[in-house]
Design goal:
416 residues; alpha+beta; Outer membrane efflux proteins (OEP); four-stranded antiparallel beta sheet; 9% strand
């Protein structure tokens, strides 16, 4: 996998990778990513574009071709030039002789452009892996949200029955029963909303591998387990080696290669031709040779060199600006990651245990007739709200970690 996240995230029930998801089997993260990488049309397009650039580079690296030509003069004229008696027929072969290392410069440019496209394809693959992983996390989170909603419906129903019994026994007012019925209706609406949200997330995930409808029932994952993250200093040191920073370096190499092509144009090429001429008037043949060279090549080449120099200067300025912006953005992302973890651990270790104890204590008091219904309702609401907030914090952590891995992913240099 391209992202270290895929190897350090502890997913529940991880086993051997299946080639194709079965409708009745839960989907694992590795499988979702593998399917996306295998079938997503964006990667197919990038691969086809790489083939096109490779073909163009091979074409541009070819030597100049030979040209075969001929001429027929002094025919169908008047007087002594009538007919073919004074005809002069010439058959020649010619070729442009490149000087100044033009072919080698074109080969270097082709190699640089292939490297650029290969890196773009790698960036597209990293983005796809990251996007698919984020969508997978969203499915797992919405599954858990739906589970909480169903549990809340069940508890609200049980509480309504208990309140109804106390109302029938004239211990609680009729208003408590109406409030309990409203709580059931609200819980059922929340459950319906969670079902719609989950279905939307499943469709979005399936789109990662080009499916219009989900071909899996559920996703397997445990968002409660937060993988450790490396220090900021360790991660930020990888930014200059990331695929996106490498894209700027490859762009500089391509511009430098185009500058070399422009420099070679300063030396004019020779146009050499050699042929045989037939003179009908003398019934003889003779060799014909010509040599030509265009003028003004050096002055014309200056424009291409100046353009490349300006592009290199602009790129260097963009690289410098990008370096500061990326550092600042990555620092903010890392702080978001730490904050999400801190929030989740606060909910898990400090607030949720107390909320669960409070809810159990309040339920026992309600059943014993010591606490009113509103106390139990508030305790239940507090517990489920905290569970939801903890889930949101855990989801934020996992998705921020995926983004960290995307930005710091280091790729091997692609040799064309």
């Amino acid at each position: 996998m391209l992202l270290r996240y895929l190897s350090i995230l502890v997913w529940a029930g991880v086993g051997s990778l299946a080639a194709v998801a079965q409708a009745a089997e839960p989907l694992r993260l590795e499988e979702a990513v593998a399917r996306a990488v295998a079938t997503n049309p964006v990667l197919v397009a990038e691969a086809a574009q790489l083939q096109a650039i490779e073909a163009r580079a091979e074409h541009e690296a070819l030597p100049t071709p030979f040209a075969l030509g001929g001429e027929l003069e002094n025919v169908a004229g008047t007087g002594s030039l009538s007919g073919l008696a004074s005809a002069e027929a010439t058959l020649r072969i010619s070729r442009v002789i490149e000087l100044g290392g033009k072919r080698a410069a074109r080969q270097s440019l082709g190699k640089a452009e292939i490297g650029q496209q290969a890196n773009l394809a790698e960036i597209a693959r990293l983005d796809l892996v990251s996007r698919t992983t984020t969508r997978f996390i969203e499915v797992v989170a919405r599954q858990q949200r739906l589970a909480y909603a169903r549990e809340q419906v069940e508890q609200a129903g049980q509480t309504r029955k208990a309140v109804e019994a106390w109302v029938n026994a004239a211990r609680n007012p009729e208003s408590d029963l109406r409030a309990a019925e409203i709580a059931v209706a609200e819980a059922e609406l929340a459950e319906e909303y969670a079902e719609h949200e989950l279905e939307s997330a499943r469709v979005t995930l399936a789109a990662s591998w080009g499916a219009l409808t989900p071909d899996f029932q559920s996703a397997v994952g445990d968002l409660q387990k937060l993988p450790a993250v490396e220090s900021f200093e360790t991660l930020v040191a990888r930014l200059p080696m990331s695929a996106r920073q490498r894209a700027l370096l490859l762009e500089a190499e391509a511009i430098a290669a185009r500058r070399r092509v422009a420099r070679t144009a300063a030396r004019a090429d020779l146009n050499l031709s050699l042929g045989v001429r037939r003179l009908e008037a003398f019934n003889d043949e003779g060799l014909v040779m010509s040599l030509s060279m265009p003028l003004g090549a050096r002055s014309r080449a200056r424009y291409g060199i100046a353009e490349a120099d300006a592009q290199l200067a602009a790129l260097e300025a963009r690289r410098e600006a990008d370096r500061f912006e990326r550092h600042q953005a990555f620092f903010a992302l890392y702080q978001e990651l730490l904050q999400a973890r801190s929030e989740f651990e606060a909910y898990r270790d400090r607030m949720l245990p107390k909320a669960e104890e409070a809810m159990q204590f309040t339920r026992r008091g309600f059943e014993a007739g010591r606490f009113p219904y509103v106390s139990l309702s508030q305790a239940q609401k507090t517990l489920f709200d905290l569970r939801g907030r903890a889930l949101v914090a855990a989801t934020r952590y996992h998705q921020a970690l995926v983004e960290v891995e995307r930005l710091t992913a280091v790729t091997q240099e692609t040799q064309p």
